[in-house]
Amino acid sequence: MQDVYLLVSGPLAWAAWTIFVLGSIYKIWSTLNTAKQKDQVLLNYVSFKYGMRSIINWSIPFNTVNMRLHPLFTGVAFFFHIAFFALLIFVSAHQIMIEEGFGIGWFTIPDAVADIIAFAVIGACIFFGVRRVVRPEVSYVTDWTDFALLALVAAPFVTGVLAYHQLGDYLTMVILHMLSAELLLVAIPFTRLSHMLLAPLTRAYIGSEFGMVRHVKDW
Amino acid sequence: MRHKLHRYIIFCSVVLCVTLCSVSAFAQEDTYLKVDAFGSLERPVSMFDHDAHNEKAMIEDCAECHHVYENGKLVEGESSEDRGCADCHTLKAQGNQPGLRMAYHKQCKSCHVEKKKGPVACGECHVKR
Ligand code: HEM
Ligand code: HEM
Q1: CB atoms A174 and B106 under 8 Å
Q2: Does ipTM top 0.90?
């Protein structure tokens, strides 16, 4: 069991982060490349000023007309994304392992608070799932891969909470937590989760076209 | 007569209770590594049964853990078991001397990894109870 733990927390974690970074670079590069081949003039229209203006405005909760039309989804989605990165970086166990491995330390959130946020994130994932069933306009574009991805996103949170509370066999749960998180990292560049990488690109493009060509706001 | 028996029974149960309580209190002190310097704890206090651990792990040299450093060099043949780790290791690191939490984690885990035996994951030491 100790061998498995050391394998999963060491070499496999390195492999997952490496694939995530290289895969992300490849994904962005290949997307820009396809755009260039399909439409030569497209990239000429992208402006830093209008692109950033759009990204910033779409990063403020309830700032856009579309967000105000869907306040519940917007609220839950913003909470989910902020909580995802906050937990990843500030959960004490993560920070302690990084400090012991690399000698750099930073602020952590108290375990009790992290625990509550983790429960809320699991709730948000359930909300996303239910929404995909009950809203006709969403369920129309939903297939099983959406639910599979949602389960993959929820898995590190479920196993993290179970491990923290030491429910079930502890070592098994920590190992499952790390494995599911590593699977999620690897999946980001190659599945629809790549919206993390592509959302800024599409926003920048749409913002540029609306701002520079049509002279209107896109939010 | 009955009165006396009654008092005797009460006396005996009080003695029994006190004994049981103090036995379990001693047992607790022995199996867990209580460190006051942390103040209120984030995690359940770590398992560590000093003598049983060192016997099972077959560690003879006290200085493997109770070390003495002079000018950044480990002093062979000297040990510091008269002091707790916290007497030297403050909560924050000082130069090469790791902070208190890091000192425990590094010393405990590095040996467990090296020997391929003993706990390495958070909850194996910080067991909930
Ligand atoms: C390679 C990646 C990762 C490793 C090695 C790792 C490792 C760990 C470890 C060792 C724990 C402590 C379990 C305990 O307290 O006993 C933990 C807890 C946790 N992790 Fe991760 N983790 C990783 C990725 C993630 C990701 C991607 C997320 C999601 C953002 C996540 C969310 C959590 C949560 C929510 C907890 C429990 C916090 C609590 O309830 O207090 N982890 N992780
Ligand atoms: C900075 C990076 C990211 C940005 C800018 C971003 C942006 C977005 C946006 C704009 C939406 C709303 C989509 C819609 O209107 O349908 C969304 C939804 C979502 N995102 Fe992200 N995202 C990021 C990273 C992530 C990551 C790392 C994950 C998890 C691994 C994630 C998981 C999700 C999920 C589960 C949804 C809800 C999908 C649904 O069921 O409708 N996102 N994201």
Answers
A1: no
A2: no
